[in-house]
Amino acid sequence: SKGWFVFLTLPPRSILIKELRAALGPLSGRGEKYCDEACLIRYLEARNWNVDKSRKMLEESLKWRAAKRPEDICWPDVSVEAETGKMYRSTFTDREGRTVVVLRPAKQNTSSHEGQLQYLIYTLENAVLSLPESQDKMVWLIDFTGWTLAHATPFKTARDSMNVLQNHYPERLSIAFLFNPPKVFEASFKALKVLVDPKSVKKLNFVYKENMESMKTMYKHIDPEVLPVEFGGNNNVVYNHEDYSKLMTKDDIKMTSFWAADGNHAVNGHSVPEVQSRSSQIVAKAS
């Protein structure tokens, strides 16, 4: 096909990575840290190795990170959003050591659009920080137990959440499991599917606790011995907000240390170079 012909005639990937690095121009502080080789590869993959499109995408992420400062969000800023355990970074990983993020939409406890987005970003940053060096993708486990249309995410929040995920955390999803989705969810999913890029749609797996064949798909990726009982595993662990708060408080210290490691502390000024530096530091995290 034409697509394959174009792909096969591309220069070697190493050259495209160097071209993207050069096209970005000088980066300082966090931007430099964010834009490591793994980061450049993710943005190139997200734009089918088109250097110009990848540059535009990455520059938008740098601007977004400079404005939002996701690495500066701390647990006290978002803890109210986490009280019911509607979204959290699990203490277990998949078989490859990847971070597993659990989402339980039926446990939605707030109506704040900004608060929910901020907590999503905080959780993504934390999940990335928790990845082992050999991995750069995470696993999502979305539990629909108890979900009804009354729990449906408002379209604006769903749209903005997908924009954040796809535009600023490209190629971060390894696989997602939609656990026990009710039939009524299918209609909502068809509407939301238009917001999701086709590559991500292929990573979505519907699994049902009573359907062992579908559960085997999840067991291939997550050992049932570490998977909580509520998700069809053998682990008796359950979400405890107090314990999770302690874990996130420790992780906030790790996050601060990670971003301070570049030695650039002049990030609170208002000059262009300092803002640039901030975005670069921020970018390091996403990579």
Question: How is the topology of this model organized?
Answer:
Elements: H1 2-8, H2 13-24, H3 30-34, H4 37-46, H5 51-68, H6 75-78, E1 87-93, E2 99-103, H7 113-129, E3 138-143, H8 155-168, E4 173-179, H9 183-192, H10 198-201, E5 204-207, H11 212-221, H12 241-260, H13 272-286
Parallel strand pairs: 2-3, 3-4, 4-5
Antiparallel strand pairs: 1-2
Helix pairs in contact: 2-4, 2-5, 4-5, 5-13, 7-8
Describe, in plain words, how this protein is organized in 3D.
It is built from 13 helices and five strands. The protein has 287 residues and is α/β, with parallel strands linked by helices. It folds into two domains: 2-71 and 250-286, no CATH class; 86-238, 3-Layer(aba) Sandwich (Phosphatidylinositol Transfer Protein Sec14p). Strands 1-2-3-4-5 form a five-stranded mixed β-sheet, with helices on both faces. It is globular and about 50 Å long. The two termini are 32 Å apart. The model is unreliable at 263-287 (pLDDT under 50). It holds the Pfam family CRAL_TRIO.
Structural class: alpha/beta
CATH topology of the largest domain: Phosphatidylinositol Transfer Protein Sec14p
Order of helices and strands: HHHHHHEEHEHEHHEHHH
Strand order of the largest sheet: 1-2-3-4-5
> Number of helical segments?
13
Q: Give me the Rg, rounded.
A: 19 Å
Domain CRAL-TRIO: 76-239
InterPro entries: CRAL-TRIO_dom, CRAL-TRIO_dom_sf, CRAL/TRIO_N_dom, CRAL/TRIO_N_dom_sf, PI_Transfer_CRAL-TRIO
Pfam families: CRAL_TRIO, CRAL_TRIO_N
